[in-house]
Design goal:
The structure holds 2 protein chains of 2 kinds. Chain A is about 75% helix and about 0% strand. Chain A is mainly alpha-helical. Chain B folds into 2 domains: about 220 residues, Rossmann fold (3-Layer(aba) Sandwich), CATH 3.40.50; about 110 residues, no CATH class. Helix content of chain B is about 30%, strand content about 20%. Chain B has 12 helices and 12 strands. The relative contact order of chain B is 0.13. The mean pLDDT of chain B is about 80. The chains are: A mainly alpha, B alpha/beta. At the A-B interface, helix 9 and helix 10 of A face helix 2, strand 6, helix 3 and helix 6 of B.
Chain lengths: ~300, ~350
């Protein structure tokens, strides 16, 4: 086990290094000068040259890369080109907790509900409840987030006035965006769980369980659910990463100061350090999430458990 | 004497998108106490479906029991609710499945899979259940049963798993053991051992066995009585000896003829019954075997044959046994050669 973890850690470090290196060169392939893009007015050639020199952008790419890597090793992601005087570290520290809270809330709602709906639909296959849940999940998966968000705002904020329309100033502000984010997730999970449960009903070991005289509830709970969940675990790890990293659309609609919008705006602004900083941050998350998923996978499914 | 299990005119259909499949079309048989009844027939004949219908483990829907009566120890079990049947399954009835590789839950230790049934039916403490389970594992001939108890199924071989399945099945001392091709997925040496265990169990506990197979070698090894099933109907039933030496139905002749004997070598082509079983979406009006039967008469295509019963319990569904039909003898080639002399076997 120790060996396995050590190996995974080394692989993870190499993965992150690859992500950083590839993104670094890709970013610099983008046409345009970040200083010219972000200054907001037309600069004279002299000023532009001076600023370019000041930011070190005139040096050879290989040298820039080495400098960036050195700073990265110290945990320093550099200054943003777009937001004057702000470090990338500072922006992440300020905005990530907001997105993470929102994402985590949505995730914690969507897991139990998604599983529950899926199990109910499968158990009541062909009944009204099943059709309702299948209909709900088809809608949830196919209706775009911005429509769901707008509808929720219209119904619960404008008409019923239960929750504020937008902004981020306390728990009541988090409810509508959380629901918006959770809905798609619940819908997707309901559908997968239903399918998996229906597949597992036909497994021989479920017949064995039935032949032992176990009650329906025990069979579902003890024999079906655990086996149905296994194929969903890898998906759930990646989903968590995605949902924590914020959503451009949801954060924009609800005017939430999260990290999601920076993913888009930093590329538009050629904000080199911001793009790279976010990529590294995301990369680390993905790697850690995968690691945790593999461990959980082994706990649930003994067939892929790592032996000493 | 009243039979332990009595199945009368059982009919099971499956609803599919393409229509209704009549898998079992009026199957009747009895299993007496302490007896092994073997149901033989080719794939798709309705063997497993009949068995699962009795156990009450058919997935319904798509399956539907359309008619018939099943009585066990004099009680009508078809009219019992699923909840009531839970007291029968695993206690009175137990089942060994065909594929031992997939019949155990991959995410649960062997021990747990055994004790959950034991505790359900015997109401014992966890500790006692464990002792019973380990004792059962020992009885089916597994070495180091306390180690096996803690293992996961994927760490066991196919033969070991099938032994575990048998251990699960016999742990609550069932009166009727169902075995659905229990040795098909195993290699030949393992087959013999598994059959031995089942025979031993029968001897020790007086349990009855209802075995389903398409392997006639197993039939000879196990059967007290044999029922031959074709296209969802029992076409011939008799005691094992009677059926092997005096088969009456052309389909039985075909099955026996298709079995390689000691003298069969590479140069002789193995006999096979021409054609394929009928499409059960639209079951035939007359005898289901008629299109493949070498002795087919006009009556066979028009009307399903009656059942002709003899005093020794041999019954056959074939128009050839009608007094108006021409007398046809079973081809001598189909009688198993090593056993040809009936008196010697006796």
């Amino acid at each position: 086990m120790k060996k396995y973890i050590l190996r995974r850690v080394i692989i993870s470090i190499v993965t992150i290094w690859l992500i950083v290196t590839i993104s670094f060169f890709l970013v610099h392939v983008l046409p345009g000068n970040p200083i010219a893009v972000n200054s907001g007015k037309i600069l004279s050639t002299e000023t532009l040259d001076k600023l370019t020199e000041y930011y070190g952008l005139d040096r050879p790419l290989s040298e820039q890369y080495l400098i960036y890597m050195k700073n990265l090793l110290h945990g320093n992601l550099g200054y943003s080109y777009k937001y004057a005087g702000q470090t990338v570290n500072g922006i992440i520290a300020k905005t990530f907790p907001v997105s993470a809270q929102l994402g985590l809330q949505a995730y914690l709602i969507s897991i139990p509900l998604g599983f529950l709906f899926g199990i109910i639909a499968a158990k009541r296959r062909g009944k009204t409840v099943d059709y309702l849940l299948v209909g709900f999940s088809a809608l949830g998966v196919s209706v775009p987030v911005f429509i769901v968000a707008a509808l929720l705002q219209l119904i619960f904020a404008v008409e019923l006035k239960w929750f504020p329309v937008s902004l981020w100033k306390g728990f009541s502000y988090t409810i509508l965006p959380t629901l918006t984010l959770a809905l798609g997730s619940i819908a997707g999970r309901t559908r997968s769980m239903r399918t998996l449960m229906l597949e597992i009903v036909n497994e021989d070991y479920v017949k064995t369980a039935k032949a032992k005289g176990l009650s329906k509830a025990v069979i579902v709970w003890r024999h079906q659910i655990k086996n149905a969940v296994i194929p969903m675990i890898p998906m759930m790890g990646m989903e968590l990463v995605g949902i924590l990293m914020g959503s451009f659309v949801v954060e924009n609609i609800f005017a939430i100061p999260g990290i999601g919008s920076y993913f888009v705006t930093s590329v538009q602004a050629l904000d080199y350090t911001m793009i790279l900083g976010l990529t590294v941050f995301l990369g680390v998350f993905v790697v850690i999430a995968n690691f945790i998923v593999d461990i959980i996978y082994g706990v649930i499914d003994p067939r892929i458990r790592v032996t000493k | 004497m009243e039979p332990l299990l009595n199945v009368e005119d059982l009919q099971v259909s499956f609803q599919t998108f393409a229509g209704e499949v009549a898998a079992v079309r009026g199957v009747s048989f009895q299993v007496n106490k302490g007896e092994t009844l073997v149901i033989v027939g080719e794939s798709g004949g309705g063997k497993s479906v009949s068995m699962q219908a009795i156990m009450g483990i058919l997935p319904m829907p798509p399956a539907r029991i359309k008619g018939g009566r099943i009585t066990y120890k004099g009680e009508d079990i078809l009219s019992k609710s699923d909840k009531e049947m839970e007291k029968y399954r695993g206690k009175e009835f137990a089942m060994i499945f065909q594929d031992s590789m997939t019949s155990l839950n991959p995410t649960m230790r062997v021990g747990r899979q055994m004790t959950e049934g034991i505790r359900k039916h015997q109401k014992v403490s966890a500790q006692t259940a464990k002792e019973i389970a380990i004792d059962m594992l020992r009885q089916v001939g597994l070495p180091n049963p306390d180690k096996i108890y803690k293992r996961y199924p994927h760490t066991l071989s196919g033969g070991q798993r099938q032994r575990v399945m048998i251990a699960i099945a016999i742990s609550s001392k069932p009166s009727l053991l169902f075995a659905d091709e229990p040795t098909t997925a195993l290699d030949v040496t393992m087959q013999a051992q598994i059959l031995d265990i089942m025979n031993q169990l029968k001897k020790d506990t007086g349990a009855s066995i209802l075995l389903v197979t398409h392997n006639l070698g197993i039939v000879a090894e196990m059967a007290d009585r044999i029922a031959v099933i074709y296209a969802g109907q029992i076409v011939e039933t008799a005691s094992a000896r009677e059926l092997f030496f005096h088969p009456k139905h052309p389909y039985t002749w075909g099955l026996l003829g298709a079995m390689p004997g000691m003298e069969t070598d590479k140069s002789t082509e193995l006999y096979s019954i021409k054609g394929t079983p009928p499409d059960m979406f639209c079951p035939p009006i007359g005898c289901a075997f008629a299109p493949r039967c070498a002795y087919c008469m006009e009556a066979c295509r028009k009307e399903a044959p009656e059942e002709y019963r003899e005093e020794n319990g041999h019954s056959t569904r074939c128009w050839l046994l009608d007094e108006r039909a021409p007398k046809v003898e079973a081809p001598t080639a189909v009688i198993p050669k090593p056993l040809l002399n009936e008196e010697e076997v006796q």
